[in-house]
Amino acid sequence: MNAASEPMPPDDLRRWLTERVAAYLGRPPAEIDATVKLRTYGLDSIHALSLCVDVEEAVGLLVEPTLAWDHPTIDDIAAHLTDLLSRDRPRREPAADTE
Amino acid sequence: MTDFVTHVRNRISDDREFVFVRDDGGRNRLTFAELDRRARATAVWLAGRGLTDQPVLLLYPAGLDFTVAFLGCLYARVPAIPAPLPDAGTPHASRVRTLMRDAGARLVLTDPAHASGLSGLSARVADAATADPDAWTPPALTGGTIAYLQYTSGSTSDPRGVEVSHGNLLHNLELFRSLARERPVRRLAGWLPHYHDMGLVGLQLQALHAAADLVFMSPAAFVARPVRWLELISRHGADWTVSPDFGYAWCTRRITDEQLAGLDLSTLTMALSGAEPIRAGTLAAFERRFAPAGFRPTTWNPGYGLAECTLMVTCVPQGQGVTVRRFDPSALQRHRAVPAPEGTPLVACGPVSGLDLRIVDPGGSGPVADGEIGEIWVAGPSVALGYRGRPAETRATFRAGDPALHGRWLRTGDLGFLLDGQLYVTGRIKDVIIVNGRNLYPQDLEEAAARANPAAGRSAAFGVRRDDGGEHVVLVQEVRRGQPGALGETAGRVMDQVTREFGIPLSLMLVPRGAVRQTTSGKLRRRHMRELFLSGRLAPLHAELEPAVNDLLETVA
């Protein structure tokens, strides 16, 4: 999980988010549906804040602490992060070539 | 000696210190001697403004400025009111005004970084630099003098401030001291907020009382990266820490193998757990996870307490280890503790020591026998003076029992039983719901739900507890027949509002008009609603239940 030398493809991002959320909630990742609102699974403000920390460390993006409320499903979050990454990309591309 | 100030000042030295580890990892330090000097200067500043005996609200971020201001208030005989800093532009600012009105406080103190953000409250920075610490003269203090007001009881619109005296504080901290037995605490580490009774008394004031070092960090830093708490313990060789159950559970869940490899918890001799239901599963999982880092199972000290008794009522003393016993779940529901090998595990919260405690039949027939569940009543010098400015509520809560004995008992509102000399806590009569160590009041949740669905009828919020002690919030709301919009959308709106505002997951049931019961005097019957909910006797028009709550209903059914 090195900080985004190469942007995560959307599918990987979705899988990674599902794994993170499942770990916070102590449930198997298979039980988390990417189209269902995370609050349905019992996501609280502590989990939501941790998700921001993990996104910052693993994806290399600074996100608002309200991320999980503004984008309530895994699919919504993945789409939002993909959007941020694509906007970020022109600046990052030279670095991505080094790996 | 009868007051906290004299006690602390007898122990001032240059080789004890408070260390605050900032979110950026940097450290701010003050020796006890410097804390004392700054507190005296603050006291001179406060006294110079004629604030003696006038309560002052302390709105500080985590850090040493709070400790100085709090101690300065005590040195000046100013009742201190620790409260959380309101987030800019949230409804929390109105909470501060309600709190000030309730306490009769006219002054807000804060640090220079937050003064402009709180200018609407005319917050001041105690300009202690201009005051001469040597001009301080100790005020007359007795055991009955109010030291501070603890506002952790009551809803946002109806807050209740517990008046804690110097005598209460000294007695409760003496209970802490006796827990340590022959190995007095030398270095405390923690992250609990200073406006929380466990953070204030269990960390800050305990360190001052025991002349121990305190190493602490902000709650936000802990939540974001829980490993930092255990790193504090490792790096500073702390021997004592305190946390609600969720703090330990969060470490087990979040800390990676790589982080674990760098930890040394072998110096820890006391790990207190309290302020919310203690789950046997949390203790066992933490032990397993952190044994390689040197954590010993005998380190646990599960306890029970509440702000109305300063902080601690009972706690397992050092080295005794955890007692987990299993009880027949159906007998527990009938208010009896019957040991059963495959039953519900409950964690013992320690023996009764230094206070009087009895278990009383909530129906009013007096004390019950060991092994029978009733309301926990407490009496003794740690029991606080009462709720500020609320004689009726003070009488009802703090003066229970035989009037001939001046009603010396505190009704805790919690349910439990005594068995083999230890207290077990099983539930509560009062309406408060505790999630992640935070007290939530049903009125606040109901009010938020009504804002999200103005066409709704009555709402009732209550907590339900899983077998393992975890607590969940349930809200039952009446909807009108023919209310516009699909029920699913309405439910979504209510859940979005409550989840966002309180940061907690919610289980919601929408029910027809008249399903939320009231007494004839119009008081909500939340406990009755809870029973109906748990027994499956509510017929919802629409339900969105958290998986854990759903599991709970299935086990009951």
Question: What does it look like?
Answer:
Chain A is mainly α and 99 residues long. Chain A has a single domain (10-96), classed as ACP-like (Non-ribosomal Peptide Synthetase Peptidyl Carrier Protein, Chain A, Orthogonal Bundle). Helices cover 59% and strands 0% of the residues of chain A. Chain A is globular, with a radius of gyration of 13 Å. Residues 92-99 of chain A have low confidence and may be disordered. By secondary structure, chain B is an alpha/beta fold. Chain B has three domains: 4-227, Rossmann fold; 323-428, Luciferase, Domain 3 (Luciferase, domain 3, Roll); 433-556, GMP Synthetase, Chain A, domain 3 (2-Layer Sandwich), CATH 3.30.300. Chain B has 17 helices and 26 strands. Chain B starts with a helix and ends with a helix. The model of chain B has no long low-confidence stretch (mean pLDDT 92). Chains A and B meet through helix 2 of A and helix 7, helix 9 and helix 15 of B.
Break the fold down into its secondary structure elements and pairings.
The complex is a heterodimer of chains A (99) and B (557).
Chain A: H1 10-25, H2 45-59, H3 67-70, H4 74-96
Chain B: H1 4-9, E1 17-21, E2 27-31, H2 32-48, E3 56-59, H3 64-75, E4 80-83, H4 92-103, E5 107-109, E6 146-154, E7 159-165, H5 166-179, E8 187-190, H6 197-210, E9 213-216, H7 219-224, H8 227-236, E10 240-243, H9 245-254, H10 257-261, E11 270-273, H11 280-290, E12 300-305, E13 312-315, E14 324-327, H12 329-333, E15 344-347, E16 356-360, E17 374-379, E18 386-387, H13 391-398, E19 410-419, E20 422-428, E21 433-435, E22 438-440, H14 442-452, E23 459-465, E24 471-479, H15 487-502, E25 506-512, H16 526-534, E26 542-544, H17 547-556
